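Sample intake sheet
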Amino acid sequence: TSNLSIRVVDMFSPIGKGQRGLIVAQPKTGKTILLQDIANAIAANHPEVYLMILLIDERPEEVTDMARNVNGEVISSTFDEPAERHVRVANLVLEKAKRMVECGHDVVILLDSITRLARAYNTVSPASGKVLSGGVDANALHKPKRFFGAARNIENGGSLSIIATALTETGSKMDEVIFEEFKGTGNMELQLDRKLSNRRVYPAVDITASSTRREDLLMDKDLLRRIWILRKYLTDMNSVEAMEFMRDRLLKTQTNEEFLLTMNGD
């Protein structure tokens, strides 16, 4: 299904150079595997891109798995490390990426997860006295926003793309507050759905809730028109039906173009 995941992403929330993307996921929806698929697709199709995978507050076995299966630089700070180290590692990665972009390189950072990074910043930031609901310090989210906001395409230079996962419905009020703060800041959003992963339908993407802003800049006009027709058709279904419909159709074709051209585009 790895190939399928990427085809779904390419069709409904395409990623360009300089993208600031958010993968919104509940626990156990397959976000880490999806990130791995995205990393491998970038490495295969765009070998000129420098790929960095930053794992913050993740399980050690996931770090090992990522390092073995992904052709890119894997930098990690596992959950048994202090918050200070999470923050230091994240800062080093960002500064390295910025220097490379200044030299004209295209860099991609895949971050798992921005929620945990924001929690770490919240732990290490000095108390300002203003506390938001969920125990988040009012000033603590400035730095993770700066991290996420660094993603951009530079005229006559390189580009920095950041694709980050954001956790929702973890049962923690703090995670909800952090997610709400980051909600409108990305220009690509991929929503994963627990209902799909519970039925073992992968990729567990909620198609109607996932989109990229200004996708017309990334796609051919005719294909985009066909995707819009397809989206209209899929909005009448729930997320499980939509994904199963797409999955059956995509498995019958080799490429997205081939699939879209089999539709009658009226």
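Comment: The longest strand covers residues 50-58. The two ends are 30 Å apart (CA to CA).
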